[in-house]
Amino acid sequence: MCPDNFSADAACAQENCSYQDVLKYLNLSMNNELFVMTRPVKNYKEPTYVSLELLLYAILDVVEKDQKFIPYVWTVTRWHNDYISWDPNQFCGIDNISVPTEILWKPDLTIEEMTEKDKAPPSPYLTINDKGDVEVQNDQVLVSTCRMHTYNFPFDIQSCNLSFKSVIHTVKDIRLQPSDNSSEATEWSREVMRTQYEWLFINMNVTTNNASDPLGQDIVVYTITMKRRSVLYIVNFLLPVLFFLCLDLASFLISDHGGEKLSFKVTVLLAVTVLQLILNEILPSSSNSIPLIAVYCIGIFALMMLSLFETIFVMYLMEKDSASDGNEAEGDQRATESGNNQGKANFYSCHRELQKWIPSACVCAVSAAETPCEPLPVAEEDNRAKLMEECQALEKLSGELKAIEKTLALLLNNRKEEEKPGYWTRVAKRFNKVFFIGYVTVVSMFLVFIFLKWNIV
User: Fold this and answer.
1) pLDDT tens column, 319-345
2) Which residues have C-beta within 8 Å of that of residue 439, sequence separation ≥ 6?
3) Dihedral (CA of 292, 294, 297, 299) sign
């Protein structure tokens, strides 16, 4: 320490000054507990004014399911100690020193929303200037609770608060105030921002709730507003659901005959169900209102379910028409078989008559001297063989005619079905056409409504 006169100052400039000289002058040591035990004011009626500054370095995570906000922040706390001051001219111009935080009193500030204590060690030093102003700087990873509003997910904007206040001191002891305004805090946070995770930092609003009650406490609230980056959710979730809806619309081009259309619709419906399960793992269950993305998924699921029911109903009508056509065809077949049996009976009757007539046939030798005619065995055998060949030829021809008749009847029935469908088939096609027009209209109105609510059109 140097004397005050001018000549001594010149000599003092050649001397070496140390921070220990300042500490000895202030009587600051680890053993002096008076600087730690009480609030550093000479008049207890005067409150200690504590200024607070907060900078947002990074947005590490936002857990919607647990409603947690995890930022990385830098806090600067300043206050005045009435028992600390010195003249820098007496100590070679030393106007500030750094000392361990354990040797001086510090305000007991806490964050209301903090749910887990910061595991990182606090800053081991604080800074004191020659006028008695004390400053502590700390970096913290805060795990805080934040009320998430997921109605507009994934196009939502979230606002999370960090409320600083004293643990036990009232406004009679500590008056808390921010050292910067909202615009300064926002600008400085943007300059030092390192990472923002999937969020885009918008601004930081600083408000002070000054207590009017002497037993109340001042609260400084930092409101961090951020917007979600929604591109990944659009690509991985919204567009696939929309594509599945387009596939459902395209399924109307598939024929209703057979089960291909029904199985295709069921497969698409199950795919949307899987996406809904993924969404359930993202959104919090404590939301007061149903998020728009849930309405989007449930609405599309309901529309596709309605389309599935319509397909089942149309297939039922067409199957009903096919059943009636089958009964008619079975009746025609029975009538044809009856006619065929009658033809066979006539053929066999003719054959029996032939068998009776052949033995009685005679070949007579016409002459005036001989007795009445005698049967000629050779002629009888020839006639019988000739008649049997004719009968076999007729039977073969009858079978071929029956086969041709069946083929012509089948072709005629198919042509009739193609040219003139049944009654229930006509009803099903008309219903399918009307439903498709209404379905496309309802889907378009629903998508426009959802996108307008999301403010993306």
Assistant:
1) 887 666 555 555 555 655 555 555 555
2) 249, 303, 306, 307, 310
3) negative
Cα dihedral value 319, 323, 329, 333, nearest 10:
130
d(Cα 83, Cα 150) in Å, to the nearest integer? 52
Cα–Cα dist 25/242, whole Å: 76
Q: Which residues pair with 75 in a beta bridge?
A: 54, 138
> Which residues, in sequence order, are CB contacts of 137 under 8 Å at separation 6+?
74, 75, 76, 77, 123
Among 292, 251, 293, which Cα is nearest to 268's? Answer: 251
How much is the pTM?
Answer: 0.72
Q: Give per-residue pLDDT as tens, 102-149.
A: 999 999 999 999 998 887 788 899 999 999 999 999 999 999 999 888
| Fold assignment, 233-355+400-457 | Methane Monooxygenase Hydroxylase; Chain G, domain 1 (1.20.58)
Q: Residue 351 burial by CB count (10 A; 0-12/13-18/19+): exposed, middle or buried?
A: middle
In 3-state terms the chain splits into helix, strand, coil percentages (rounded to 5) of 50, 20, 30
What is the end-to-end Cα distance of the chain in Å, rounded?
Answer: 74
Q: Which residues pair with 48 in a beta bridge?
A: 174
Q: If DSSP codes are grouped into helix, strand and coil, which group holds residue 325?
A: helix
Q: Sketch the domain layout of the chain as residue ranges.
A: 6-229, 233-355+400-457
Is the omega angle on the peptide bond into residue 154 within 30 degrees of 0, that is, cis?
yes
List helix spans (H) across 205-282.
Answer: 231-233, 239-250, 260-280
Place of tokens 């806490």: 110
CA dist., res. 114 & res. 164, Å (int) = 10
Length of the chain in terms of residues written:
457
For 160-189, the DSSP string reads EEEEEEESS--TTTEEEEESS-HHHHHHHH
| Distance of alpha carbon 192 from alpha carbon 188, whole angstroms | 6
Q: How far is CA 278 from the centre of its chain?
A: 6
User: Which CATH architecture group holds 6-229?
Assistant: Distorted Sandwich (2.70)
